[in-house]
């Protein structure tokens, strides 16, 4: 079953018949053909399989996870694929990443959502752990969903990532988080994450070494 679903997820990706001066990949989600421009010199500007897993979940579970008019923020949006799919599914999306990635992110989001979405998504800088209250004040920022795909890997900013999850997450916020396990760092982060949040694995793809999680603040999952 894992391999069958993985084959369907990966089947959503396609490549151009002709190579042009711009490198791009294509994807089929939410009834649209999505073209993503990538930059191969930067981790954050490449579409990783975890993003496809999260997009596939959003599309195939659109009834129980209804994004229409929901306020969604994606952290570590990278190329913007997850933000684009959430926008096409009716959400009001804020796509965030580091300042050096915003140009490519803005290009992809704009090109794939213009006049196609109920709400035009916005792109905003978010450096994990930095100026969180200034840029995303708790009093005025309320997100129904926080989305993240492959934000945990071998980097020195796991403390800041956890701080960012904690700052953005209200009591009724749902976190949807797709994660590829590579090194022991990932397991340690999950342990620390579970000190603040109830975590439920909702999909698992051993052939990709990717798990998809749903999380809420401690004690809120059942409610």
TrEMBL record:
A GO MF annotation of the entry reads: methyltransferase activity
A Pfam family annotated for this chain is: Methyltransf_16
Cross-referenced InterPro entries, in alphabetical order? Methyltransf_16, SAM-dependent_MTases_sf
Q: Which GO terms describe its biological process?
A: methylation
Which top-rank group of organisms is this from?
Answer: Eukaryota
Q: Please give the CDD domains that the UniProt record associates with this protein.
A: AdoMet_MTases
What keywords were assigned to this record? Methyltransferase, S-adenosyl-L-methionine, Transferase
Name by which UniProt lists this protein = MT21E methyltransferase
